[in-house]
Amino acid sequence: MNKRTHTCGELTSTSINEKVSLSGWVNAVRFHGQVVFVDIRDRYGKTQIVYNQDSFNGDFELVKKLSMEDVLSVTGVVQKRDKNAINPNIATGEVEVIVSDHEILNESAPLPFMITDRNSAEEDLRLKYRFLELRTNELQNNIKVRHRTYQAVRTFLSNNDFLEVETPVLMKSTPEGARDYLVPSRIHNGKFYALPQSPQMYKQLLMVSGFDRYFQIVKCFRDEDLRADRQPEFTQIDIEMSFVDENDVMAKCEELTSTIFKEVKNIDLVKPFPKMTYADAMSKYGTDCPDLRYDLFLNDFKPFSDKSDFKAFSSAESVMGIIVPDGAKYSRKEIELLTEHVKRYKAKGLAWMKADEGKLNGGISKFFDDDLQIQIRKKFNINDGDILFIIGDKNKITQLSLGSLRIAIARKEGFVKSTDFKPVWITDFPMFEYNDEDKRYHSLQHPFTQPKSNDLKKLKESPEAIPSKQYDLIINGYEVAGGSVRIHNSEQQKIIFDILGIDKKEAKERFGFFIDALKYGTPPHGGIAFGFDRLVMLLAGTSNIRDVIAFPKTTSAMSLMDGAPSSVFQDQLKDLGIQIKK
RNA sequence: GGGAUCGUAGUUCAGUUGGUUAGAACGCCGGCCUGUCAAGCCGGAGGUCGCGAGUUCGAGUCUCGUCGGUCCCGCCA
Question: pTM for this one?
């Protein structure tokens, strides 16, 4: 094999007449009898190489057998292309290499799909041959973006005195929160490790140990169902800081996020990032992950529906509406589709009225008299040609369904510019949320989050009313990071477990070592975790998390390439003391 | 756990109210061709219609089940 002198993206007219060697994959072959053009590709680019029967020293008959994705090593002389033969689409398009000698390092079997076109096969096939799909331009670029993001993160944090520390992957199961992936112990039959949902307790313990500023780019595991932006194993940028309050952490993370966007995409994010309370996000956007790229808001419609003759809304806990500019053009069928959309969120229906000639027409407009219509139009600044969508239900359903409708309409109307990035901090989350199913309170983030109030009595009496020191970073509607100031007092920590309905014995068994550690001089501390894959998704301009992970899993958590998960040998199970129930 | 949707040559797809031998393009194989860059022209091979039942004289087409992909709800401290 001739060692390459250049990569396939490197040669320009400055190398003319030089003898060079290139190695790479056959990206395309064009046969013309006595002359054969081959595009040879590696991760740096493509170069046209030319086999001419007169100047090629090898067996020309074998050249005719070249096919897609064969691996070649070629040696030849760089030649300037004729003016009319220049290819402006590739960086090396002004030159070509006239091959004198070559070696076929490896022939490729016929391909299951075309490397030049990622859309030439369905996703299941591409996942089975992921190693081939990773050769496509798009995925090569995404992996490079991911790499640059790692480097930007490590450089920034290291320059800011953060220490990178690894934490265990085999840890104790703490069944608060997501379902754990469990690993059976061979040495202790019947006992299990859990894979970390996040290194939460470890990083807090590192603060107790005095490391002051910690970070880790770390794999986390949650055995829950998947989504387009969710994988069962995913990567976090895990961060923790001592002697800080919420604003310190948020400020540092703004710097980090801005640095990443600048380094990776050369985009300047507007600083400081705006802040919004959880309550405002829910009432204005119907979600705690608002996409700020378009102005389409939820409005309180209850005062108007109460004055109308439309009885379906009179008993609704909340009635809200959104106004879509130029939405009056929507056909019955389009409205029907949007109705289907909101029904997924348990909304009973989607009421509407169209604005025309100073009035409101169609839908439920007949229940609103002229005077009321004028008030509505004035209050919400409705113009002719707009449509008003209204939902009345329990507050949570109204917000959730209209919040989702907002997104659906923005997509439909193309309100979103893909080059726009709008970060926002969401703050003042409630500490707890009551769960009707298991009749107890759940932490909105995790049970180590500090309440904003020190009023323990109030905390016990009305847990829902107390906000926490949690903060989430949302960019374009994606939750990119979430964190909080932690409890650093073991007594307060016990009270929180108590409110969560974890009894003392159970708390001691599950979290005893941790509560104990808080007694030995714990500095006030707080931190955050970035969803690294989602961040890279945004940077790479895709809405599919599989596009930024080298070897992802399907929505049923399988790896189609290697066939995981799979059965294991009886002996392996025996070692672990495990019997499979049929 | 639930809903929607998809599964037909190697690949992407078409396939009418259930009816003769399941088609096209790209790819693959063979041939021609000295300036292409989505090369072109000629010829050829290639099918368990995801799998399994059922209805029917007859199923790619209808029904049920099952496996797999995608998107969503629940879930994701």
Answer: 0.95
The verdict on ipTM greater than 0.95 is: no
Mind giving me the DSSP string for A237-304? EEEEEES--HHHHHHHHHHHHHHHHHHHH-----SSPPEEEHHHHHHHHSSSS--TTS----EE-HHH
Written as six digits, the tokens of A9 are 């993206």
Q: Which nucleotide's C1' sits nearest to the alpha carbon of A32? A: B33
By C1' distance from the Cα of A85, the closest nucleotide is B35
Find the Å distance, CA of residue A227 to C1' of nucleotide B65.
Answer: 27
Nucleotides of B under 7 A from a protein CB: 1, 10-13, 26-40, 68-77
* Residue A86, nucleotide of least CA–C1' distance: B37
Identify any residues that bridge with A421 across adjacent strands, giving them in sequence order.
none
Residue nearest to nucleotide B73 (CA to C1'): A344
A383 CA to B17 C1' distance (Å): 49
The nucleotide lying nearest A174 (C-alpha to C1') is: B77
Round and report the angstrom distance from CA (A545) to C1' (B52). Answer: 35
Note the CA–C1' distance, A540 to B13, in angstroms.
30
Separation of A120 CA and B15 C1' (Å)? 21
Alpha-carbon distance of A82 to A66, in angstroms, equals 25
Q: Which nucleotide is nearest to A553 (CA to C1')?
A: B69
Does residue A184 have a cis bond before it (omega within 30 degrees)?
Answer: no
Strands A45-52 and A95-106: parallel
CA of A336 to C1' of B63 (A): 29
Structure-block tokens of residue A16? 């003319």
Phi, psi torsion values for A69, nearest 5 degrees: 70, 10
Instruction: Return per-residue pLDDT of chain A as tens, 582 residues.
Output: 789 999 999 999 999 999 999 999 999 999 999 999 999 999 999 999 999 999 999 999 999 999 999 999 999 999 999 999 999 999 999 999 999 999 999 999 999 999 988 888 899 999 999 999 999 999 999 999 999 999 999 999 999 999 999 999 999 998 778 999 999 999 999 999 999 999 999 999 999 999 999 999 999 999 999 999 999 999 999 999 999 999 999 999 999 999 999 999 999 999 999 999 999 999 999 999 999 999 999 999 999 999 999 988 999 999 999 999 999 999 988 998 899 899 999 999 999 999 998 889 999 999 999 999 999 999 999 999 999 999 999 999 999 999 999 999 998 888 887 789 999 999 999 998 887 777 788 888 889 999 998 887 888 888 888 899 999 999 999 999 999 999 999 989 988 888 888 888 888 888 889 999 999 999 999 999 999 999 999 999 999 999 999 999 999 999 999 999 998 999 999 999 999 876
Q: Name the residue with tokens 């002996």.
A: A571
CA of A346 to C1' of B8 (A): 38
CA of A187 to C1' of B64 (A): 48
DSSP state of A497: H
Which nucleotide lies nearest residue A98, CA to C1'? B35
Q: Which residue, counting CA atoms, is nearest to the C1' of nucleotide B32?
A: A33
Q: Which residue is nearest to nucleotide B11 (CA to C1')?
A: A113
